[in-house]
Amino acid sequence: MRNTPDEHRTRRRSIASLARRRPALCLFALLLLLFSSTRLTLPGGTGHAQGPAAQRGAEQTEVNVISWDVTGRTTQLAGVTASSGILVFDSLATYERAYPLIFQMSAEQAQAWEKSLGFVSQRNIFNQIVEAEYQYLAAPYEELSTEELKEMAPPVGHTDIYEKYLRSGIIKTERDEHGEETYTCAIPIGAYLPIINEQGFFVVGNTIYQIKGNLIKEMLGLDFSKLAALDEATEGDDGGRIRVQRVIENPRLADAKAASACSFPRTSGWITSGSRRGSITVNFSKTYFNPYPYTKVNIVYNVNVKSQKKNVWGNWVYPPCPNECWLSFTWTAAFDYINKTTLSYAGSTLSAKSFAYPHPNCINNFNGSFNPITGSTAPYPSSFTFIAPSGLAFQDVGFQSALWHASVPGGPSGINCNVGCP
Description:
Elements: H1 5-9, E1 30-34, E2 47-48, E3 62-66, E4 80-83, E5 86-89, H2 92-103, H3 107-117, H4 122-137, H5 146-150, H6 160-168, E6 171-175, E7 181-185, E8 201-204, E9 207-212, E10 215-220, H7 227-232, E11 242-246, E12 266-267, E13 271-273, E14 276-288, E15 296-310, E16 316-317, E17 326-339, E18 345-355, E19 365-369, E20 384-387, E21 392-408, E22 415-421
Parallel strand pairs: 2-20, 5-8
Antiparallel strand pairs: 1-3, 4-5, 6-7, 8-9, 9-10, 10-11, 12-14, 13-14, 14-15, 15-16, 15-19, 15-20, 17-18, 17-21, 21-22
């Protein structure tokens, strides 16, 4: 049994002096570079990769500047509602338009917007856990002297909200490379966190989706009375009403070569300086569709950044806002082709892109999924399917070069976490 916060309250200073500051709302514009020849569709649909000629000509891009007001809910969020605590996008077009805006909301913006809908995301739940754990395990003791700490017993166990969501599978524990236990989001693709409720449900058009553990599930039709059946499903049904896809956690490439001259996942590991540490991990996986030579490929590309702080008792915790972390991701995606008939090399397409999160003042466990060609944040299904140009097939798909950088609090000038490729 853990000591409750009430049992500790009589042994510590007033919490009032330790009240956390909340950052002001920051409305940044995120530039999404949309490559007009590639589009995202639901499973079974495709996008198109431009042919080798694209690298010889000027790259044509359309620049969309996104700006919005959470309280006003302008047209970019039109068509997004909530029903029975589940976020509902009235169409795939609405989802593709609205997801990047929801993804880039600050914690305060997301909380206000979700409250206006009557919806609570797993991103919001994770932030609640972080806040509760920090107030229980760290904040009350930060300004106490060494002598005062000697007279106090360290807190035991975790908060009720932590235990609740650990049991329900919203979070999971893990061991770092030093054997120390910490916690993180349970689902392997964290880009879903801003749109799924506690049970993992969301709706796009006429389909109910559920993200549960390493399963991505979908059920045709908007019959909410059948949510229990979807929740219990681990395989698709014979009639095709429910489909289930398994997500491979930490996918690795068996044939890392040529354009993808590095294997995944790639991670900086924990970089530590004093009482702060950070890490960055990149996952990239590709699945070719038979027959050979492959004219169709599916790509998943995810990035996770973590920032933690050691409390006075020597335990690592996620700090709540404000926690300033700067992210800078740059990459050149490479699609190498062969002639479909002769199998000889037929050139490549290169696409240089970058990403920076617009709210660096509140990052402790960032999760993002990206389109490798456009650089846009990826809505469902967090993967992209590409078809080779006519007469060509894919030889390899990956990164010609890339640098994923995160600067997190710690040390005299921040802790730099880097992952490069190759």
